[in-house]
Each structure stands twice: as structure tokens, then as C-alpha cells.
């Protein structure tokens, strides 16, 4: 499926943030904005709802904690009990470092995998990029166009008025 | 950095401490005095002691138990408030050195916190000079003299460090360093308000950097001197960090709580959920840090189980007929579990009511953390709460009086700070 986009290229993050406000105020639906680094306040400006990733992270953490405790209690307490340093077989203080590490391990791996899956940013051979300069020093605002590019002249004018240094057109093919 | 909601710039705000507020502070002091008197009378006349064990336990020497408890609780509360007060300056210094912008809006609160360093230092010196024998075992007469009945070989071996002149020199230098740098940073800040310009900021950064180096050393050493040396036979290499973590997280809780009260009374117009969010994150993070340090100390001692080290936890876990066991677990719950779960979500850190509850819990929790560090080593099983809470309330009221007075001496917003705009437009 092929989609067409109008790309407004901006030089400065403040200009971009004002442009986002004005474009949305003018009733334009912004597809996405690409920036070389995270811009403070851009989520609010774009009206993006808060991510639910932290909730997932909490449950990954609980899984990690449960797994770590089960692993240690089962192996050291039941499967192959050994006396180490005169401590009881199930010696909780000694299990805490491992429990902590596995909680962190499960949480970060779970979050990274979830994040990549949801956003489609997972590593692959050919990465679709709207404008490669958005990985360097330009801010790119993408607005989806219809079949006949009917909104393009108006959008070009609007983007120019709001400080875009150039307006390009791009077709993206989704396999 | 950039929010589109408003483009106003910050203006000066003047705090007026109302008579009502002052009345509350005096009421806190009065309540403290009442508790203290009741506590002292209880201790003197042994009220409420069903089974008479007076004299059976026996304190080796020195003052009657009521005086001993009074001195130790003065020392305890003073260390807590002095440390929290110094954290005001440390917080400001760290933000200067990091070139942090968001925290400028609470800078005046951190400055006001350091007002207690001078009176705290005076109180500390007086308590030490008057009551050191009841707090520090190593100050007893002829304890380092071979052949005397008081002789203690372990303490004698430490006498190169723990002797009166050197201890006093150290104590005075910590206090002077903390006080002098707080005074200097405050002075620069006030001059900046009057004259503007960036030279005050650059001077403050240099001063702050030097202070942080010195504070890193003095905070650790003061923890050994003032807190660890009450358990003079025992030592822990984690102790400096442990005490610092306790002071630091309580200091941040205190700063946040002050900001909340100011905000709820209509001050700090530009302080919003984003600033509270960041303060909440710091409290959340450093509650975990405190627990990390606490656990590191506990686990090593528990695992190695060497008698001379384990005695510290034997006293607190089940020692003295289990007097401290409840407090020991309460300490972990209120200082770690509660802030950890309470401040975990984003919304919790952005709502003043939850932050307020957690701040109060952290402050009370770390006060009892210091209680747990000091009491078993000094009072053994003869501890109590009435005198201690009374003394703490008197300190709290006095601290609030001085702190709010200093807050009202200058604008609540440092209008000429170069980063004030960044702080006003801060988003998280």
C-alpha cells in the first residue's frame, strides 16, 4: 500500500513547536514528527496520549521478581538443599540481590521488546525514513495526503507561513 | 524547556508569614514542651512501670536516666535537623554544578533550609560539651589509660582518632564549612537579586563545586563522629553513605513539603506539576538508594556473621527484650516500601496530596531511622518516646520559625537567576 506525505522541514525546535500548535489549530491532522533528539513538550503539542508502557513494565518486573524467588527457593530450598555458611536453606536476605537483578533484567528486556514491537522500530535491513536529515539536524513534520494530493498547495502555504524552510512530497510503500 | 502554554516571565513574590502560621509554629513548640515535661516526669517517677526493674538493669555510671534520655534525644533531633538543613545547601550546590535549570524555582527554599545550620551547630557544641559522657562511651575518664579499671583496649586503639581535642576540631570544622558555604551562596544569591548579571551565577558554581567536594568528605566523617561513634566498638564502612542517604532524602522531602505548603497558600505561581514530578522522582529514587545502602550494610554483616559486627543488628533485632524489633521493620516499610509503592506512578508524583503524605512519612521515617541508629548504643534498653518526640517537636517548631523568617526576607523567586525562565517553562 502506498501512502503520500507532505513533509515540512524545520530548522529549529521552537519554530517547530509553534508550527505544530498552529497547524493543529488550523485543523490539519499531523501524521508524525521526526526529530534528531527528543523535544521537550512535543507529546503534549501533538496531543499524543500517554504511553501505557510503564504498566507493562510493572508486570514484567513482577514476573522477574517471581521467577527469581521461585528459582532460588526451589533450587536451594527443595531441589538440592545445601547448607551454606550455616544459614537456613531458604535464606531470604541472600536471595535479594539476585531477585533485584532479575527484576531489572525482565523489566528492561520486556520493555525494549514491547516498545519495538508496538512502534515498528525493530532493527531490519531496510528502514523506512521520511527524510534522512531528520537524523542529523532537521525537524520533519509529516502530513498524510489523499490520492490526488488535493490538499498540497494549501498545506505548502500553511507550512511555509509557519516557518518551514522547505516542503517536500514523499511516497512511502508499506510492504 | 519549551512549553507553549504561557510566555510570561517570572516576577518577584514576597512571602508574608501570617500570625496564624506563627501561632501554629509556637503551638508545635508548646506541644513539644508539654510532651517533654510529661516524658521527663514519667521517667523521673517511673510512672507506668508495672514491674519494678529500676536499678536492676543499671547504667554503668553517669546521669539519672531522665537526664540521659534528654541529652541523647537532643543530640538525636539536632543531628537530624542539622543534616536536613545542610542538605538545603547541598541540593542547591548540586543544581549549580549540574547547571540545572528546573530547580531554580525552589532555590529560595533550599537557601532558607540552611538557616538552621548556625543554631544547630551551637546546640551541638553545647550538648557535646555538657553531656558527652552520657552519649559517647569513649569519652569516659581514663578509658585509654592502661591499668585503670575503666581501661578498654579497643577504644584505646582508636584514641588516635577518637580523642577530645581532635574530635572537637573536626566537629567545629564540619560545622564551619557547612555554615560558611551556605552563607556565601546565600549572599551571592541575594546580590544577584539586587544587581543581576551572570557573574554571580559563575561565582556560585565555583563555590558550589568546592563545597560539594568538602561536603562529600565532611558528611561521611561527621556520620562516623556523631552517629557511629556511639557504638564505639562497632564500625561499618557503609555508615557515612547510610547517614548521608538518610539526610539527603529527608532534605528533599522537606523541600518538597515546603514547596507544597507555599503553593497551597497561593505562592510560587509558576511552580506546577512538572516541578513536583521531578522532586517526586528524586524522593522516589533516593528512597530506593537509602534502602540499597541500608541493605548493603545489613546483608554483609548478616552473611559474615562476625560477632563484633553482628552485635549491631543483634541489639536492634530482638535485643533488649525485642524493644527495637518493631521499629526496625517499621523503618524499612515507611522509608522504602511506602515511598516506593506510593510514588511509583506518574500521577502520584504530580498530585500534591500524595506527595504530601509521602513527604511526611519520609521525614518521620528518617527521624526514626536516626532514633534506631542512636538509641540502642546509648540508652540500651531504657529508651522511650515521649521525651524524644517532645524534643523533636520543639526542634521542628523552632526550625519552621527560622526557616519561614528567612524565606520572607527575600523574593521567593530568584528573578535574576539566569535559568529562571527555563524553570518557569519546565516540562517533564
TrEMBL record, chain A:
Signal peptide: none annotated. The chain crosses the membrane at residues 55-74, 94-118. Keywords: Membrane, Transmembrane, Transmembrane helix. This is Quinol:cytochrome C oxidoreductase.
From TrEMBL, chain B:
Keywords: Membrane, Transmembrane, Transmembrane helix. Coiled coil: none annotated. It comes from the Bacteria. This is Quinol:cytochrome C oxidoreductase. The chain crosses the membrane at residues 24-47, 79-100, 112-131, 167-185, 205-227, 239-262, 282-304, 324-341, 353-373, 385-403.
Amino acid at each position: 500500500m502506498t501512502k503520500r506525505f507532505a513533509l515540512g522541514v524545520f530548522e529549529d525546535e521552537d519554530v517547530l513547536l509553534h508550527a505544530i500548535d498552529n497547524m493543529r489549530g488550523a485543523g490539519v491532522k499531523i501524521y508524525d514528527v521526526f526529530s534528531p533528539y527528543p523535544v521537550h513538550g512535543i507529546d503534549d503539542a501533538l496531543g499524543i496520549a500517554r504511553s501505557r508502557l510503564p504498566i507493562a513494565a510493572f508486570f514484567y518486573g513482577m514476573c522477574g521478581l517471581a521467577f527469581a524467588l521461585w528459582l532460588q527457593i526451589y533450587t536451594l530450598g527443595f531441589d538440592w538443599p545445601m547448607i551454606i555458611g550455616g544459614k537456613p536453606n531458604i535464606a531470604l536476605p541472600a536471595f535479594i540481590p539476585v531477585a533485584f537483578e532479575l527484576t531489572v533484567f525482565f523489566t528492561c528486556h520486556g520493555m525494549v521488546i514491547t516498545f519495538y514491537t508496538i512502534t515498528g522500530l525493530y532493527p531490519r535491513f531496510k528502514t523506512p525514513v521520511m527524510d534522512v536529515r531528520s537524523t542529523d539536524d532537521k525537524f520533519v513534520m509529516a502530513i498524510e495526503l489523499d490520492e490526488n494530493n488535493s490538499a498540497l498547495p494549501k498545506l505548502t502555504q500553511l507550512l511555509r507561513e509557519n516557518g518551514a524552510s522547505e516542503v517536500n512530497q514523499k511516497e512511502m510503500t508499506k510492504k | 524547556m519549551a512549553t507553549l502554554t504561557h510566555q510570561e516571565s517570572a516576577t518577584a513574590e514576597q512571602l508574608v508569614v501570617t500570625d496564624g502560621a506563627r501561632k501554629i509554629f509556637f503551638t508545635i513548640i508548646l506541644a513539644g514542651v508539654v510532651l517533654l515535661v510529661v516524658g521527663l516526669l514519667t521517667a523521673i517517677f517511673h510512672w507506668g512501670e508495672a514491674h519494678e526493674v529500676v536499678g536492676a538493669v543499671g547504667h554503668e555510671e553517669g546521669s539519672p536516666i531522665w537526664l540521659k534520655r534528654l541529652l541523647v534525644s537532643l543530640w538525636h533531633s539536632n543531628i537530624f535537623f542539622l543534616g536536613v538543613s545542610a542538605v538545603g545547601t547541598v541540593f542547591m550546590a548540586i543544581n549549580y554544578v549540574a547547571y540545572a535549570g528546573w530547580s531554580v524555582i525552589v532555590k529560595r527554599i533550599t537557601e532558607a533550609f540552611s538557616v538552621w545550620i548556625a543554631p544547630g551547630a551551637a546546640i551541638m557544641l553545647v550538648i557535646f560539651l555538657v553531656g558527652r559522657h552520657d552519649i559517647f562511651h569513649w569519652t569516659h575518664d581514663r578509658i585509654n589509660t592502661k591499668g585503670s579499671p575503666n581501661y578498654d583496649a579497643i577504644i584505646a586503639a582508636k584514641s588516635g582518632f577518637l580523642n577530645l581535642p581532635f574530635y572537637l576540631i573536626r566537629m567545629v570544622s564540619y560545622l564551619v564549612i557547612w555554615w560558611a558555604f551556605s552563607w556565601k551562596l546565600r549572599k551571592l544569591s541575594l546580590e544577584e537579586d539586587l544587581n543581576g548579571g551572570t557573574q554571580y551565577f559563575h561565582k556560585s558554581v565555583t563555590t558550589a563545586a568546592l563545597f560539594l567536594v568538602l561536603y562529600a568528605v565532611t558528611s561521611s566523617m561527621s556520620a562516623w563522629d556523631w552517629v557511629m561513634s556511639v557504638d564505639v566498638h562497632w564500625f561499618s564502612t557503609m555508615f557515612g553513605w547510610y547517614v548521608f542517604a538518610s539526610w539527603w532524602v529527608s532534605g528533599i522531602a522537606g523541600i518538597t513539603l515546603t514547596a507544597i505548603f507555599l503553593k497551597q497558600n497561593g505562592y510560587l505561581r509558576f511552580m506546577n506539576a512538572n516541578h513536583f514530578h521531578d522532586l517526586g522522582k528524586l524522593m522516589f529514587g533516593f528512597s530506593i538508594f537509602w534502602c540499597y545502602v541500608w541493605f548493603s550494610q545489613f546483608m554483609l554483616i548478616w552473611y559474615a556473621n562476625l560477632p563484633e559486627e553482628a552485635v549491631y543488628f543483634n541489639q536492634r533485632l530482638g535485643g533488649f527484650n525485642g524493644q527495637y524489633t518493631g521499629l526496625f521493620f517499621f523503618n524499612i516499610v515507611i522509608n522504602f516500601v511506602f515511598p516506593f509503592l506510593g510514588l511509583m506512578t506518574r500521577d502520584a508524583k504530580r498530585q500534591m496530596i500524595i506527595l504530601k503524605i509521602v513527604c511526611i512519612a519520609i521525614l518521620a521515617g528518617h527521624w526514626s531511622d536516626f532514633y534506631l541508629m542512636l538509641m540502642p548504643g546509648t540508652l540500651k534498653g531504657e529508651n522511650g518516646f515521649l521525651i524524644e518526640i517532645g524534643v523533636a517537636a520543639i526542634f521542628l517548631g523552632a526550625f519552621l520559625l527560622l526557616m519561614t523568617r528567612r524565606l520572607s526576607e527575600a523574593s521567593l523567586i530568584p528573578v535574576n537567576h539566569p535559568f529562571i525562565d527555563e524553570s518557569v517553562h519546565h516540562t517533564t
